[in-house]
Inverse folding.
């Protein structure tokens, strides 16, 4: 048998194999007409000639799949960009608080810096700081800021203080009453930041009239960092304040 004849037989054998595979594929598509609907990812990679005529539904479907895929990618990219902008904004806020706390002259400065920044940045309708103390004179002198360390209202935050983690969402009535006093009934959602620097110093409470403003699913990394910064600043000024009250 000559080489040309062998090549001819080999070519015919390959053609028959390809033809058999195509026939099997065509048969499978006929028996499963919904296969492209169930696997739309195939439409994004198929090469389909677009001859003129009425039967263009498959091509149109392929274009639709590609457009939907692009739309999802655009949406995902927009979400990532929004997250990046939020992270940048929070980073700038954290830096402002840190710089301002370094320049704080006294305890009043610390409280004002923190409450002003958090109220504006986190759009809280109510912002408070409650500091724990064993000094009864401070409780009488600053009733809206200091509370006695043995105040029973602190028990409502026992778990939060033990774990030292901020919490967002709907607070229980005891927590709202302790933090927001006369405004407790107006609080629909809240963020609570424990202040701990070697000891439980107190709490920051951020309240909103909107029940969706602070949700349990929100990330609390930023709040935890703010809690660390404020705790460090408070520890210094509280110590100075105690010394001043003991040695007038």
């Amino acid at each position: 048998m000559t080489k040309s004849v062998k090549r001819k037989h080999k070519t015919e054998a390959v053609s028959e194999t390809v033809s058999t595979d195509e026939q099997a594929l065509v048969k499978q598509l006929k028996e499963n007409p919904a296969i492209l609907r169930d696997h739309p990812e195939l439409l994004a990679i198929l090469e389909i000639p677009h001859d003129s005529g009425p039967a263009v539904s498959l091509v149109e479907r392929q274009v639709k799949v590609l457009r939907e895929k692009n739309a999802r990618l655009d949406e995902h990219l927009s979400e990532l960009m929004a997250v990046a902008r939020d992270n940048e904004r929070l980073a700038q806020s954290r830096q402002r608080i840190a710089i301002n706390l370094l320049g704080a002259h006294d305890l009043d400065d610390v409280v004002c810096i923190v409450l002003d920044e958090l109220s504006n940045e986190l759009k809280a309708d109510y912002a408070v700081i409650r500091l724990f103390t064993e000094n009864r004179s401070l409780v009488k002198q600053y009733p809206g800021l200091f509370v006695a360390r043995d105040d029973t209202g602190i028990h409502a935050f026992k778990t939060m203080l033990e774990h030292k983690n901020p919490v967002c969402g709907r607070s229980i009535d005891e927590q709202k009453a302790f933090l927001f006093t006369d405004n407790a009934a107006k609080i629909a959602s809240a963020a609570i930041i424990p202040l701990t620097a070697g000891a439980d110093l107190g709490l920051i409470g951020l309240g909103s009239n909107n029940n969706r403003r602070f949700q349990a699913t929100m990330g609390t990394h930023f709040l935890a960092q703010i809690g660390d910064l404020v705790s460090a600043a408070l520890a210094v000024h509280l110590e100075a304040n105690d010394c001043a009250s003991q040695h007038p």
Q: What stands out?
A: DSSP finds eight helices and five strands in the chain. Residues 103-246 form a domain with the Beta-Lactamase fold (CATH 3.30.450.40). The longest strand covers residues 200-208. The radius of gyration is 33 Å.
